[in-house]
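Assess the record.
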Amino acid sequence: MKKTERIRLQMLKLAAAVAVMLSVGAAAGAQTPADWEKMDGDVIVYMGNDLGRNGYYEQKPVAELMGRMAETIGPECVIAAGDVHHFEGVRSVQDPLWMTNYELIYSHPELMLDWFPVLGNHEYRGNTQAVLDYSKVSRRWEMPARYYTKVISEDGVSLRIVFIDTTPLISKYRQETDKYPDAAAQDNAAQLAWLDSTLKNAREDWVVVVGHHPIYAQTSKDDVERQDMQRQLLPILHKYGNVDIYACGHIHNFQHIRMPGDSIDYVVNTSGSLARKVEPTEGTVFCSGTEGFSVFSATKKQLRMFLVDKTGKAVHTVTKTNP
């Protein structure tokens, strides 16, 4: 056998061995239904965001993982925290993106649940009213307004989710009327007054506020985004001392941040299709640049938010405890 042929065969064997090692490593990192059972609680809720890539990148595998895991843990519903559609939103309720970004991707029988969305900045590039109106088309798309609240109760445990519309709260979107035509038309004062009233009257075991944009995060995006969010939202979120977690998307990675003297945990949920790199910043407890989704699990004494990567592994858990 010629020397070049021997070298070629050796390289092929080496490549095959590496492929086997990578496959075994990936399988070892993946979680099983027995692991997922540990996420059990009285109330289980999924959270996904930054999804819309027409099934490309990791969107379809993550969607399939969500369905398989749902067979074990049985979520009540799905929070869709914005940017379900990239890049220019949708034009109407008949837009084909509803099929290629959503209906045909999240098609597992266990995902035929109520989905509770908020608008992201990419929805604001299109027809935002069509996103609300899709509730009349799809049985599982439940969006009664641009901001709203939902209480989920099971076995004496109650979780209130407060859904807010963050794009109009950020000045740069209101100013870019050519890209985000609906943003400047929204009444921020009315939304903030509603948020204050909703939190004032919240008596549930747990309160989670969900928006698309982060209040705190490590990101290369404009500082004004976090500054506007902090200025307008933090006084209200802190006012009644009952908000446990502020959860969002937008940054396309996992981040869990705790700020000194602040009882709220700030969590960025990663993209369900295409993630970005991340580095620690002030207050970082955990961060990871991997695709995935999150799972809320609530009992009377404990609220946990599991950050689940694309292999099904809970890479980090945010834990809140009631006395």
About this structure: The chain has eight helices and 13 strands. The longest strand covers residues 302-309. The chain has a mean pLDDT of 92. Residues 42 and 299 are 5 Å apart (CA to CA).
